[in-house]
Amino acid sequence: LQDEETRKDYDYMLDHPEEYYRHYYHYYSRRLAPKVDVRIVILVTVCAISVFQFFSWWNSYNEAINYLATVPKYRIQATEIARQQGLLNKTKEKGKNRRSKEEIREEEEEIIKDIIKNKIDIKGGYQKPKIYDILLFQILLAPFYLGKYIVWNCWWIYRFTIKGQEYGVEEKLYIIRRYMKMSQSQFDSLEDHQKETFLERQLWIRENYEVYKQEQEEELKKKMAMDPRWKRYRRWMKNEGPGRLTFIDD
Known about the structure:
Elements: H1 4-15, H2 20-31, H3 38-68, H4 72-84, H5 101-119, H6 135-140, H7 142-162, H8 169-180, H9 184-188, H10 192-200, H11 206-226, H12 228-239
């Protein structure tokens, strides 16, 4: 009876002994209630998810590097840079330090991958993971991001709505990205010539973007119409259908 809530239940039982089942309910609810602080459970869960996120992103990033190391375009460039820096020559040592061909090949492979990591900026879902992108840091930095977002919106309204200034290149690309409903990483993964085309066609203007969107939809329809696999699918849907249940005996 050292707990205040338990004492209240005990006093209530003495005053109302006829409420038999209610007393049993309160007794077992307190006895079987979890003793661990809910905040600790939430913190441990968030930390576990964050660790899984980080290692999952690292795995995706390493897969991307391993793939790029097999692409002739990037492999040739990385090999040439390694030769210019004299990194490949170090692997072919003589005398006591001489190693097997397998060891030399593995070290050369690691050198090429390191050069690809340093020279190629991978964007999108396979980009190099950052510690600030995991869930734990996103929650901790949420107030900062919220304040930054509010300040940025006030700055945008003041500059372009109140003062009526013209959009710069970054602002135009931002509006285009919003129209296309793309995330920042998705938009960054586009080629530079694509972004230049967006600017040339003035897609930050809503009317121009709607025309561009319609053209892209028509082009996609033409590609699908010419695609042999899509033709086979349409022919199958027309002749066979998606599958029907019948009770007719063959």
